[in-house]
Amino acid sequence: MSLITEVRFAHEDGALADTLTALPDLSVDIVREASTAPNRSDCFFRFDHPHPEVVRPALESDHTVSTAERVSAADDQHLWKIAFTAETTLLAPVVTKRGGVVLDARSALPNTEPRGWRERWFFPDDDGIQGIWHHARAADFEFDVLDLSRQLQPDVPHVEMDPVTDEQRRALLTAYELGYFEEPRETSLEELAAALDLSPSAVNGRLRRGLKSLIGTALTVDTEVGSGRTDGQSQTEPESYQYR
Questions:
Q1: Domain of 60, in residue numbers
Q2: What are the tens digits of pLDDT across the range 174-207?
Q3: Residue 23 — φ and ψ, nearest 5°?
Q4: Do 152 and 181 share a domain, yes or no?
Q5: 29, 46, 17, 6: which is closest to 115 by C-alpha?
Q6: Structural domains counted in the chain
Q7: Which sign does the torsion angle of CA 139, 45, 211, 182 carry?
Q8: Do 48 and 138 reside in the same domain of the chain?
Q9: Which CATH number does the domain housing residue 196 bear?
């Protein structure tokens, strides 16, 4: 029985521990999770802060950060490539070792103490999350399981960790930032195309394909088998468990 679990965790030597503590208003998203590429030592992060100029000094003084480089080639000024020190305590490699996949990762909410990370993981069975719990407890993590969603259909052919292409992601993020998805829209398709230096038809195609991929990954739930239910809903465990 496959399992998708949402967790919240923190560690004094966890990724960006000093930065998250120093900047309580900072929100961070991992753009591309590198845990399935063992030879990769860096990750891409997008930072959202009302005063982005404070991010660089915070990263420079963070004891978990080995190198931090702003991705200047990207339109998004808040995109950084970061490599962590050898002493940084990470859970993503443990998830991979246990046969899981990190579906998404972002910083915990600002009012969460201690600051840490909120992630969604996929495991083919229950053994993975149990192993992570034991590991986290032994390594002195603050570790909460927020949600456990079980999929009764045993065969999950593929879990797409990054369902959209780089081009689709750029189009979607630019559209979001310029207010294309607001009601009423704050920018037109033609203005969005000009910002992306593409034709309106090309932008429209990237948006449609990107949204289709995201919806297919995030909202499609396998129909339950053998339970007499065909509404596609998954069974969910109680809201929160605390493993500390």
A1: 2-157
A2: 888 888 888 888 999 999 999 888 888 888 888 8
A3: -120, 80
A4: no
A5: 17
A6: 2
A7: positive
A8: yes
A9: 1.10.10
